[in-house]
Amino acid sequence: MTRILLIGFMAAGKTTLGKALARDLDLQFVDLDHYIENRYHCTVSQLFADRGEEEFRQIERKMLHEVAEFEDVIISTGGGTPCFFDNMDYMNGQGITVFLEASVDVIYTRLTIARTQRPLVANKTADELRQYITDMLERRAPYYTQAKHSFCADRLENTCQVDESVKLFKKEILQA
Questions:
Q1: Which of helix, strand or coil describes residue 79?
Q2: H helices then E strands: how many in the chain?
Q3: Residue 7 contacts by C-beta under 8 Å, 6 or more apart in sequence?
Q4: Which pLDDT tens digit goes with each residue over 40-77?
Q5: CA of 28: how far to CAs of 22, 64, 72, 80, 89, in Å?
Q6: How many other β-carbons are positioned within 10 Å of the β-carbon of residue 74?
Q7: Where does residue 63 rank: exposed (0-12), middle (13-18), buried (19+ CB within 10 A)?
Q8: 168 within some domain
Q9: Tell me, what CATH number does 95's domain have?
Q10: pTM of the model
C-alpha cells in the first residue's frame, strides 16, 4: 500500500508532479482542493468567502482525514493544509510526506502566469506578489519542514522536466 502526501506553497507543483507520479506509479491521484470542491459543489474561494477561513479549515481537515485513508494514492494538499490543527502530524502518520520546495522566483513566475486563477494573489502588484510569497513561505516553513522528505520542484515547466523530476523523485524519495 502506497500513500504519498505532497505539501508546499501554491504553484510549487504539487498537482503537476502528483499527476505525473500517479501515472508513472499507477496510483490514484487526489487533489484535496478539487476533492473539497466536488463534495461541497462550490469552489474553495467560494467556501472561504461564504463560510470564512476558520470553517473552511475545519472542512479541509475533515476531507484530509477522508482522503488520507485511501490506499495506493498520491494526495496533493492545499498550500495551507499543513499549517492548521494537527494536520502535519496526522499526515506524517498516514504516509510518506514530501515538501515540494520551489524558490520564490519560480513560484513568482508561475503565479504571475496563473494569477487570474488564484484569488489570493489576483489583485496584487508585482512587488506585493513577491513580498506575499516571501512572507508566506517564511510563515509556513515550520510546518512544511516537518515533512519526512523534501524535494526540489523548481523544474516542472515542461514535459521533459516533469519526466526528469518523476525519475528523480522515485530515486530520492521512494528508494531512500
A1: coil
A2: 7, 5
A3: 14, 77, 81, 82, 88, 91, 97, 98, 99, 100, 143, 144, 147
A4: 999 998 998 899 889 999 999 999 999 999 999 999 99
A5: 6, 15, 6, 22, 23
A6: 27
A7: buried
A8: no
A9: 3.40.50.300
A10: 0.96
Residue 13 gets which letter from DSSP?
S
pLDDT in tens, 15-46: 999 999 999 999 999 999 999 999 999 999 89
Look at residue 121 and tell me whether its pLDDT is greater than 90: no
In a domain, 170, yes or no: no
Return the C-alpha cell found at 112: 504571475
Please report whether residue 138 resides in a domain: yes
Mean pLDDT (whole number) for 128-141:
97
For 120-146, give one letter per residue: b (16+ CB within 10 A) or e.
bbeebeeeebbebbeebbeebeebbeb
- DSSP-assigned letter for residue 43: -
- Counting the structural domains of the chain, the total is 1
Mean of the per-residue pLDDT values of the chain? 96
